[in-house]
């Protein structure tokens, strides 16, 4: 079985109805098997424990894919896929579900609370360095980017992530879907960089869940595992590896699909659980997010370095795009982006525009963390 698709860039420029698995280790160590999973009947995956999906029929294929210019595609002579080989794929009609390392429902709620609240408002212990579209921008039907892959040094009870957010609705009913990578020892039981999804239908007040731990996201691919580790990863000053997620609204079904590398369909968030995204999203954000431990120490973000013009030296997002009402992928205009950094002592983000050619709209982000305050 192949884990999530990775792309290497050779740069030449200067319990919710799902069985809770083993008890979450309180020791900071790599487990023997980093991709333990079960093959589950596609109609018996956790999503179908959600009463809103009682009569939902799985959409195996999107009605269409967003169209994009050939210049937006990664050139095969400069980029190549490096999937991590794991176990055999699941049989047809079944999907791989990662075994949960969460000890019990209390732990699940505690971990989910780390995502509590609207990303546009302040939350104690949470820090962000990102760029987002102007608030309440109408007519956003998806987002895509290339995300640099690193493994920041994160301790237990800390989290460091790099995500794409797609959102809509008023704050108390905020619908948000997210994808990117995360180092989250409490969630995964290790300090690996893992492909991570999150969704909420009410600003994380009562709903909100990572991956397929509780009912929401529907997986259709029988090989790729949501929550699997990325490998290999970027090396500061050396080779750069990226993941290329795309989230977009199916123009016919209204479901929100997750693709990797523009053609690997992983699954979707069904429209029934995201009423404020039924028409379109109004907000997209790209960037880094951290949560501090109870002692107030915040972890590194990105590769732990502040942004530099040499993007081999800092973590970056590239090819920032959104999907318009015509189902076309379009490059984000630089003047339509707004920067958000809540503590420049610990983190920062710098936009480089189209400085790097085929990488299009690009920005670097990150920082060492430390005592960053509230």
Number of domains: 1
Q: pLDDT under 50 segments (min length 5)?
A: 8-34, 74-86
Rough shape? Answer: globular
Percent in strands: 25-35%
**Rounded to an integer, what's the Rg over CA atoms?**
19 Å
Q: What's the average pLDDT?
A: 82
What separation lies between the terminal Cα atoms? 42 Å
Q: Could you spell the SSE succession in H and E letters? A: EEEEHEEEEHEEEEEEEEEEEEEEE
Number of strands: 23
Pfam family, one: Neprosin_AP
Keywords: Signal
Protein name: Neprosin PEP catalytic domain-containing protein
Organism: Dipteronia sinensis
Describe the 3D structure:
The protein is mainly beta and 374 residues long. It has one domain (7-371). The protein contains two helices and 23 strands. Strands 1, 3, 6, 11, 12, 13, 14, 15, 18, 19, 21 and 22 form a twelve-stranded antiparallel sheet that branches. Strands 10-9-8-7-16-5-20 form a seven-stranded antiparallel sheet. It has a two-stranded antiparallel ribbon with strand order 2-4. The chain starts with 6 loop residues before the first strand and ends with a strand. Residues 8-34 and 74-86 have low confidence and may be disordered.
Key terms:
signal; 23 strands; seven-stranded antiparallel beta sheet; 2 helices; single chain; mainly beta; globular
Brief overview, please?
The chain is mainly beta. It has one domain (7-371). The chain is built from two helices and 23 strands.
List the helices and strands and how they pair.
Elements: E1 7-9, E2 37-41, E3 79-81, E4 94-98, H1 105-112, E5 126-133, E6 142-148, E7 159-168, E8 175-183, H2 185-188, E9 194-200, E10 209-210, E11 218-219, E12 240-243, E13 245-249, E14 256-260, E15 264-269, E16 283-291, E17 297-298, E18 315-323, E19 329-331, E20 337-341, E21 348-353, E22 362-366, E23 370-371
Antiparallel strand pairs: 1-3, 1-12, 2-4, 5-16, 5-20, 6-12, 6-13, 6-18, 7-8, 7-16, 8-9, 9-10, 11-15, 13-14, 14-15, 17-23, 18-19, 18-22, 21-22
InterPro entries: Glutamic_endopeptidase, Neprosin, Neprosin_propep
Signal peptide: 1-20
Keywords: Signal
């Amino acid at each position: 079985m192949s884990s999530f698709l990775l792309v290497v860039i050779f740069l030449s420029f200067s319990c919710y109805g799902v069985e809770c698995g083993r008890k979450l280790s309180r020791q900071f160590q790599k487990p023997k098997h980093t991709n333990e999973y079960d093959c589950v009947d596609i109609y018996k995956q956790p999503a179908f424990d959600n009463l809103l999906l009682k009569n939902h029929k799985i959409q195996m294929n999107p009605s269409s894919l967003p169209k994009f210019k050939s210049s937006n595609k990664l050139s095969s002579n400069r980029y190549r896929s490096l999937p991590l080989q794991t176990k055999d794929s699941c049989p047809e009609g079944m999907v791989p579900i990662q075994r949960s390392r969460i000890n019990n429902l209390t732990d699940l709620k505690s971990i989910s609370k780390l995502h509590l609240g609207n990303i546009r408002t302040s939350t104690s212990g949470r820090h962000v360095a990102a760029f987002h579209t102007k608030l309440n921008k109408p007519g956003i039907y998806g987002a895509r980017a290339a995300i640099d892959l690193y493994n920041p040094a994160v301790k237990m009870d800390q989290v460091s992530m790099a995500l794409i957010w797609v959102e809509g609705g008023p704050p108390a009913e905020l619908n948000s879907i997210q994808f990117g990578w995360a180092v989250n020892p409490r969630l995964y039981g290790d300090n690996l960089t893992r492909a991570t999804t999150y969704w909420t239908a009410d600003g994380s007040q009562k709903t909100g869940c990572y991956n397929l731990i509780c009912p929401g996201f529907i997986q259709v691919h029988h090989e790729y595992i949501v929550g699997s580790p990325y490998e290999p990863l970027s090396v500061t000053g050396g080779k750069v590896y990226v993941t290329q997620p795309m989230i977009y609204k199916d123009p016919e079904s209204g479901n929100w699909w997750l693709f990797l590398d523009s053609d690997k369909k992983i699954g979707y968030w069904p429209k029934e659980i995201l009423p404020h995204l039924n028409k379109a999203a109004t907000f997209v954000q790209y960037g880094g997010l951290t949560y501090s431990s109870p002692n107030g120490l915040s972890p590194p973000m990105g590769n732990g370095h502040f942004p530099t013009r040499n993007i081999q030296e800092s973590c970056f997002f590239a090819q920032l795009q959104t999907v318009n009402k015509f189902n076309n992928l379009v490059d984000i205009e630089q003047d339509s982006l707004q920067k958000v950094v809540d503590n420049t002592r610990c983190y920062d983000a710098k936009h480089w525009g189209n400085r790097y050619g085929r990488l299009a709209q690009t920005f670097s982000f990150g920082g060492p963390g430390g005592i960053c305050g509230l």
